[in-house]
Amino acid sequence: MGRVFLLVWALLAVAGVSHATAEEEKPPPWRLVLGKTQLLGGPAGYPDFCKANDAKTRSALRNETVARLKAIATKEQPAILAAIGNPKDARSLWLVNAVVARLDAKQVAAARAADCVLWTYPAGLVPAAPASHDKVSEVLKRRKKKRRAFSMRGKEIPWHLDALNVPKAWKELGHTGEGVVVASFDHGINYRHEDIRRNVWRNPDEKPNNGRDDDKNGFVDDLYGYNFARMTPEVLDRSGRAHGALTSSCVVGDGTGGTVTGAAPRARAMALIAMGGPWNACNAFQYALEEGADVVNMSFSIPNLGHTRGLWRLMAEHACAAGLVLVSGAGNFQKQAKIPVQIRIPEGIPCVICVGGLNRERQVPGFVSLGPVEWSRVKFYEDYPMPEGLIKPDVCAFPGPGITMIQGQGKSGYLGESNKRRGNSLSAPQAAGVIALMLSANPELTPWRVKAILEATAVDLEAKGKDPRTGAGLIDAYAAVKAAKRGAAPVTGR
């Protein structure tokens, strides 16, 4: 992709053992068996839910919806397991009512014939539990002193935050992300950096590296989040391109070293690694919900999912119904794919806030993915036919180059305006940071109202109204936070 800065989550095949003989058979693939009973379903499920629950607070919806999802799974999954022969390796999910197991062709056929089963999908990578206890490699010392209120005094503010009207929201409205947790679905974060270390989320009930599940949530030593791809608590981003470190700095970088890189310098970042497919992603969503995340930033884009797009949409709609605000970049495929497949998953899901990109002149660069998106050929939805389709992106921010971020691998320092990294991986966390400001001002805003407010207050740029190049326009943090305080926005569920 040249200089295009993007993380692609591929659906990884489970490889055979390298020393296997020709006589040995590979185990059957992991399959996700989706139960017939779901909280939401079909094109009207989420919009109807939004209208029916618009008077409720986000915290109430979190408790009620999670309880309902778990109840559905508990009731129906014994029948699902019986239909596939009660395999010993079966694992359960509750965000969607589903079980995952290694299934051969006969078991898949039996599952699809069962009255309690809606469909089966590839589960992607399903890691085994680690053979030995894996530790958090670096544990930060807890600070006892109460943190001072955020101040811009003496700090440099990058051009893109100014263009999004973020400093005005800090100064005049007084909200900088306090009390909001933003989960980063990425390669981890660099919580060693001085601008991040005080903004990393910390599990309050977990003692580090004692080999025990102190809070009884099913995960050992999950101090700063969890790596579901390897089933380990290590979430420090050590990847070569430091993708997660850089995207998270666009959300919570607080300027301790002199430059404020994050739109929400008093929010906290939860690190969740879940590359590999629906099983890992669903576990990450469940963790985010149970551990109190408010926003999820997803700077990745998955192509060629076919009907599995419907499974991702169901996961996303259930997560939003439970109060998670979901954000994703529009992608960087303008020159690589034809419409309507430029905008992929998760950014092409109706309830996910899809963030497109503009250059400094507020024009759409030649790499930024464009809409609209088609859903008419996806099983169980069959809506948004072309040519009108679903209008995406929803709003725009700045994908670079020239976006100031932290040094991804170091304990201090920055990538300044001269850096060439670019991609809508950077646009999405700018929006996630602004949303953290909105929720800091009004914590009970539901995800559909957050989306509606963000669009209603954006600066329209091209065709009047929402268009498939710039969506509703450029994010205006000041206007969005001011409107969030009032809580007013149309209820559409879209």
Strand content: 5-15%
CATH architecture of the largest domain: 3-Layer(aba) Sandwich
Order of helices and strands: EHHEEHEHHEEHEHEHEEEEEHHH
How many separate structural domains? 2
Distance between the termini: 31 Å
What is the general shape?
globular
Over the alpha carbons, how many angstroms does the gyration radius reach? 22 Å
For the record, the CATH class of the largest domain is Alpha Beta
Question: Helical percent range?
Answer: 25-40%
Report the structural category: alpha/beta
CATH topology of the largest domain: Rossmann fold
CATH superfamily of the largest domain: Peptidase S8/S53 domain
- What's the assembly state of these chains? single chain
Described by strand count, sense and barrel closure, the largest sheet is: 7 strands, parallel
